Predict the structure.
Amino acid sequence: MKKNTKLYETAAALLETGKGILAADESDSTAGKRLSMVHLPNEPEHRRNFRELLFTAPDIEKYISGVILYDSTLREATKESIPFADVLTARGIVPGIKVDLGTKDLEGFKGEVVSQGLDNLAERFAEYYDLGARFAKWRAVITIDDEETPTDAAIKMNCIMLARYAQIAQASNIVPIVEPEVIHEGDHSLERAEMVTTRTLQILFQTLIEYKVDLAGLILKSSMVLAGNAHSEQTTPEEVANATLRTFHMSVPHTCAGIVFLSGGQTPERSTDNLNAIAKLGEQPWPITYSYSRAIEEPMLKAWGGKPENEEAAKEALRATCERNSLASLGKL
Ligand code: 13P
């Protein structure tokens, strides 16, 4: 396999010790859900202000190595007309782009879905690269329901899509983040979450290797392994940490550049505490850190409340959240 050092440099920058990745890649409609938390209508101007607060908060570059953007945000600029990608790059933060186009039902497989977006992906990557993006994300969704769900067939189809996306990204000098999100909603046990996540990651890495994806230029974005949010027994940080690392050791080759976590609807506090417990278990074969969306944005949104007079407080709340997650990624909380 030909080595692409550009990919390794980007991956190393994203996985710098003590830093994580902010996922600010909500689609325009999901951004509306964030704005509704602060009683603002889902209009382009408010979405722009929300992103501008995130990307201009002082000192976040100490804790954030990269930001994942959505197509319209990568094309958006500050009030002073500086493109968001340039604002981030100037701060030493790598801009990234979410490229899957959401999910569609997988016919014949109840409740299972497959992600869309492979058409014209090479052309899209060429444009995204010109706009400043150096890494990307593709999210697949794996839901745990009855004993039958998820099926291997649905997992395999999603993994083939992830592998094809990763091939095209690497050929475009863009580091792929592969994200098979095992959904936290449900009443499944910790044991079941561990089984499903292990199986999913085993199939994923088998497929990536089969299709000659360079794992040294690829980042895994994973769910933490924890019982479903409606399960009677909730998982302690120590249980999450042990189950999550057991899963990775059973499935993630050591050549993979690194692993980042999504927060998956856990509270900001819980996401941070679980990360801290994972880091406390000591050095692993891969760098491991955070790539949260909701768990980073929620405290900032609360402090902002959609009011201009609270903008500085909102930026400080964001900085403080990133600092806590940075400390958690080092096991120092
Ligand atoms: P959450 O941290 O809100 O789960 O989002 C992370 C993400 O990028 C999901 O695709």
In short: The chain has a mean pLDDT of 97. The chain is about 45% helix and 15% strand.
